[in-house]
Amino acid sequence: MSFSRPSCLLRRTIPEVCKTAYQLHSRPVTTQTHLLALFPGDDFYSCNGHVACDTDNKPNSVDLKLWSQMQQDGSAPNAHILNRMVSACAKSGSVFLGVQLHSTVIKVGFDSNVYICSALVDMYGKCGAVSSAQRLFDEMSYRNVVSWNSLISGYLQAGCPKIAIELFLEMVKVGIAPTHFTVSAVLVACWRTEDTKLGIQVHGLSLKCGFCYHIVVGTCLIDFYSKGWKIVASRLMFDLMPERNIITWTSMVAGYAHCRQPVAAMVLVRDMQRWGIRLNYVTYNCLLSSFSSSNDLDHSKQVHCRIIQEGLESNSYLAVTLVKVYSECSSNLEDFNKVCSGVTRWDQISWNAVIGGLSNLGNGEAALQCFSKMRQAGFDMDLFTFTSVLRAIGMISSLEEGKQTHALVFKMGYGANLNVQNGLVSMYARCGSINDAKRAFSSTDGHDVISWNSLLSGCAYHGYGREVVELFEKMRRSRVKPDNTTFLVVLSACRHVGLVDKGIEYFDLMRNDYSLEPPTTEHYSSMVDLFSRAGYLSEAEDFISKMPIEPGPSVYKALLSACQVHGNVEIAARCAKKLLHMFPNDPVSYVLLSNVLATVGYWDNAASIRKVMSDRGVRKEPGYSWI
User: In the predicted model, is pLDDT for residue 386 greater than 80?
Assistant: First the structure.
């Protein structure tokens, strides 16, 4: 079966949906008056020639005055020129001129030309007028694969992937053979709708049609599998591709970044360098986005140095990403401020990155000051701005600023956004205004797990333990499935109010739910604290001995602290021995053991522990308060 199409169509639009890792930015419509000055007496054919040449050299510009002169002269353009002009409108987003061209198409009798009509469908879709594209498509007496592809792409660009999939299925039913363009567009629609099964079927179709290893289709398959968290299948597809370009490599790097595998992303980038492929700012941007914890700080600094060596440190996108990376991987405010000083283009994204970074670093006051400067500079705020600001307000418990920001949220029209609503719930809860948090929660449309966790953690933090249990039972009856954070909050609430049986029930519920990740050290530490606070020290020690993972310091410290309260020296000695063996330089272990001995009257032993601590050079950092 042949899937060839005319060569003139191959020079048309490149699929927007296949540029997931390599976004190109359209340039504005420009008017080139110098052409009119250079060719004042051109006839119809020379005007057509200038339009063609201008479209070849600058595909995102449209010579409006030249087109106007052709209309004034009464010159009738041919189908080829009209097709190129419509394509130029699609690339530049000039829907107004595109509508004029559409009327000219009808006027000169080319409304039945499938190539021009397909170009018009493509133009309307790229300009955001997908309803006009659909109407024109329905009016076409004959449609080829380009017509279908153009409409599918239009719905994808309009954020309607389900309709794009329905169109694809209808296209197959009427007997239109798909092309690599069709497959790549449908793969994007599949991962946007999280329809993995259909995506795998489309992969099989591409194998059957013979263009599975086409560079565009292969890149889209890499993207599809990685975004569906099937990174092994994504890498297999990458390894099987006979030809790879910079977009293919970058998509694989982006896949590792999406699946939080920074080491694999670094190894792949080194392979790129060994193959002599020069990294661009998009590749570096994807690589940096894979770093999100303090363990990645060294890697992020290495990549930062490489960016400076390549002369890309002035790139505005990389500068903003570096701000985000240093706020997540480093706790050093000085390093963060140095990176911020490298931002040369201050737009909404830059401000959001700095405000979010300061919030991540726990500097709520500086984040609010930055937010004030952003408003004074006249930049618009979006949902990312508000979520970062609300988090910063919660950190410093500034309820008055929180209420003012809440009013600003409604004024700017973001009151119905779920992420902002969750931020409001969390902010009020952290500020101790539980009633306001409940009202914000009640006004939220379609609660998700973050909504519930925000309210639960706020109630637990302020001592409403039994209310946390009641809310959790309501959550279980809803369609929202608890996650590990939910269980950690509920276990924390149970241990503070002494609900031992409930805590055991919820822990077993979490441990036996195979759709959840296994309990972490924090969950086991909460259970040990639950037993210990209730006086069940032997049960707590037995629970530690049966843990399937290596107990962390928080587990032993919880038991050791309870031994001080209940005066159990025997268990305290065994617990402290293990803790000091694992972490000999941790001052808390010495202090806790010394306090246990002092509580039961063993003053000499307590003093000897303090002396050992001093001889080893271990010092406890002094505490501080806001007062």
Answer: yes
